[in-house]
């Protein structure tokens, strides 16, 4: 038979074990949630950059070159830090876009009307690099090395089918 001291020790051990199991479960859950938050923040950063680049393109096409230059500068600054967190298949194309920073900013500083087209093409390349859909009939051909745009299940298959 167990003495009262042994019973108390068994209860304390059971409570401690239950506490440790609960703590471990919550720690694992918190780690998963933290990892998901980081992934979501990375996607949000890339999406914000896309919106900033789109705004720069629109401003340039409207002739607001200074506003476009500021947005483009913000885009390139953000892209420089976001490239390392981008999907591996997109990093080369994003670096290629980043390499056009000086030329693009110079075009905007000079009020070059071609800057709007330059930024629009860059916007499409950015979206393609990230695997986002580009459905414009005037969309440029896919950039070599870009992540291919995958069709959605609702898209009809292309090609002639089986023979």
Extract low-pLDDT stretches: 145-163
Strand fraction = under 5%
N-to-C series of helices and strands:
HHHHH
Mean pLDDT: 84
DSSP, total strands: 0
Supply the helix-strand structural class: mainly alpha
Multimerization status: single chain
Radius of gyration: 26 Å
Shape summary: rod-shaped
Helix content: 55-70%
Sketch the major β-sheet.
none
Question: What distance lies between the first and last C-alpha atoms, to the nearest angstrom?
Answer: 82 Å
* Total count of helical runs of at least 4 residues: 5
Architecture overview:
The model is unreliable at 145-163 (pLDDT under 50). With 163 residues, this protein is an all-alpha fold. Helices cover 69% and strands 0% of the residues. The termini are far apart. The chain is rod-shaped and about 95 Å long. The longest helix has 59 residues, at 4-62.
Nutshell version of this structure?
The chain is mostly helical. The chain has helices at residues 4-62, 65-82, 88-98, 101-109, 115-129. Helix content is 69%, strand content 0%.
Secondary structure topology:
Layout: H1 4-62, H2 65-82, H3 88-98, H4 101-109, H5 115-129
Helix pairs in contact: 1-2, 1-5, 2-4, 3-5
Question: What distinguishing features does this structure have?
Answer:
single chain; 163 residues
């Amino acid at each position: 038979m167990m003495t009262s001291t042994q019973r108390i020790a068994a209860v304390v051990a059971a409570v401690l074990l239950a506490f440790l199991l609960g703590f471990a479960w919550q720690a694992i859950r918190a780690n998963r949630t933290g990892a998901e938050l980081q992934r979501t923040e990375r996607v949000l950063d890339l999406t914000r950059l896309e919106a900033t680049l789109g705004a720069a393109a629109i401003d340039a096409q409207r002739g607001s070159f200074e506003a476009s230059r500021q947005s483009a500068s913000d885009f390139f600054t953000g892209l420089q830090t976001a490239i390392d967190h981008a999907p591996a298949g997109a990093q080369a194309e994003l670096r290629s876009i980043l390499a056009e920073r000086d030329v693009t900013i110079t075009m905007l500083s000079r009020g070059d009307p071609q800057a709007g087209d330059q930024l629009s093409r860059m916007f499409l390349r950015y979206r393609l690099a990230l695997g986002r859909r580009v459905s414009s009939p005037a969309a440029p051909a896919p950039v070599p090395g870009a992540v291919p745009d995958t069709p959605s299940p609702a898209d009809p298959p292309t090609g002639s089918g089986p023979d």
